Structure formats: structure tokens, C-alpha cells
TrEMBL record:
Domain called Transcription regulator PadR N-terminal: residue spans: 6-90
Pfam short name (any one): PadR
Keywords assigned by UniProt, alphabetized: Coiled coil
Ranges of biased composition (kind: Pro residues): 188-201
Protein name per its UniProtKB record: PadR family transcriptional regulator
Cited PANTHER family: CONSERVED PROTEIN, PADR-FAMILY TRANSCRIPTIONAL REGULATOR
Domain of life the protein comes from: Bacteria
UniProt keyword Coiled coil present: yes
Region (Disordered): 180-201
Coiled coil, from the record: 130-157
Length: 201
């Protein structure tokens, strides 16, 4: 998830570490907190794999000429996606298997970069996510039916709350799928003119 999100953000523009961490927090939407302790090792691995490059600051340009000594100011390393990184990102964007939608956190990150995703891939991911959530809903309903008479009212309310949350997600996904389908139909090129019959001999 982290590699995908980093590549997606750097695909839009180069960034230094602080800005990248800030943007990651926005993309993940509170699903996961990204610390520098997890970000920089990931960047190091991706740099070693050739997926990103770094623009190291000029050590002589770190401080203005009149800056007092030992101010601790440092230049910022800028990270840029490479051609290999773009290829890897497009490979990840094109994945439509369970890894793209079974995990809610990864699905959320995939959704954040849907603008880079082909329409048919978007639709398959959304439909896969809906199937996953519908299975979760059926499991919750079965559990609620089995335990209704054996749990206290607080546990029962917690189970109902979970079921309502899953119901909302199914409705939301159904709306997204319907929008995608309408958009696909609207973007289809109109049929061309029918070929005219050849002139009589």
C-alpha cells in the first residue's frame, strides 16, 4: 500500500520527504498514520530498486552566507519517480485481483488514484469490492441471527451498528458502479455512418 501511494503521489509531481508524508496522510484519510520511521526506509528500498531518484541538495547552498553557524538548517532531498517507477505504478494500477479490493485500506488508496486507472479496471475493482463487502454483510447477518438471544443489548447494538456500516458501504459502492457505467456509455464513440451500397453496374 505504501509503495503504491508513494508512486502515485510522485507520479503527479516530485516531492521532498515532509511534503510526501503530509500528502500520504491525506491520501490514506486517517486509515493509517505514516511515520518517518516507515516512510524513509520505504523510500530507501524504492530508490535501491530504481523506482525513484533523489535530487540531493548542494551542501554549499544549504545556508545563506550570513547565517549563524550551527543553525541546523538542512536542504531538502527531492524524490522523483523514474521511468521504472512509472512502469511499476501502471502495473499496480492495472491489477484487478482480490489484492486490489479485499483489503479496505488498500482499496481506499486505489480509489484515491482512480484518475490514473482505466475505466474497465475501475469497474472491476468496484464490483470486486462490492462482492467482498456483501460477503461480510451476509456473515454479519448470520452472526446476528445466531447470537441475538444469547448476547446483551450492548453487544447486540454493536453488531447492528456494524451491519448498518456495511449496508452503507454496499449502497455507496453501488452508486459508484452505476456512475461508472453511465460514464462509460456516455464516453463511447457514436457509431459511424453505415457504408453505402456500391453503385449499380
Amino acid at each position: 500500500m505504501l509503495e503504491f501511494a508513494i508512486l502515485g503521489l510522485l507520479h503527479q509531481s516530485p516531492m521532498h520527504g515532509y511534503e510526501l508524508r503530509k500528502q500520504l496522510s491525506e491520501v490514506l484519510g486517517g486509515l493509517r498514520s505514516i511515520s518517518y520511521g516507515s516512510l524513509y526506509p520505504a523510500l530507501k528500498r524504492m530508490h535501491a530498486a530504481g523506482l525513484i531518484s533523489t535530487d540531493e541538495p548542494d551542501p554549499r547552498a544549504l545556508l545563506p552566507a550570513d547565517a549563524p553557524p550551527l543553525t541546523g538548517r538542512r536542504g531538502k532531498v527531492v524524490y522523483t519517480i523514474t521511468a521504472e517507477g512509472k512502469e511499476r505504478f501502471h502495473e499496480l494500477v492495472g491489477q484487478t485481483g482480490p489484492e486490489a479490493y479485499d483489503d479496505g485500506g488498500l482499496f481506499g488508496v486505489r480509489l484515491a488514484f482512480f484518475r490514473h486507472t482505466e475505466a474497465d479496471v475501475r469497474l472491476r475493482i468496484l464490483e470486486g469490492r462490492r462482492r467482498t463487502v456483501e460477503r461480510q454483510r451476509e456473515g454479519l447477518r448470520a452472526s446476528l441471527a445466531r447470537t441475538r438471544e444469547r448476547v446483551d443489548r450492548y453487544t447486540l447494538e454493536l453488531q447492528r451498528h456494524g451491519l448498518e456500516s456495511v449496508d452503507r458501504e454496499v449502497r455507496w459502492l453501488s452508486e459508484l458502479i452505476e456512475t461508472e457505467r453511465r460514464q462509460s456509455v456516455a464516453e463511447e464513440p457514436p457509431p459511424g455512418p453505415r457504408p453505402s451500397a456500391p453503385p449499380p453496374p
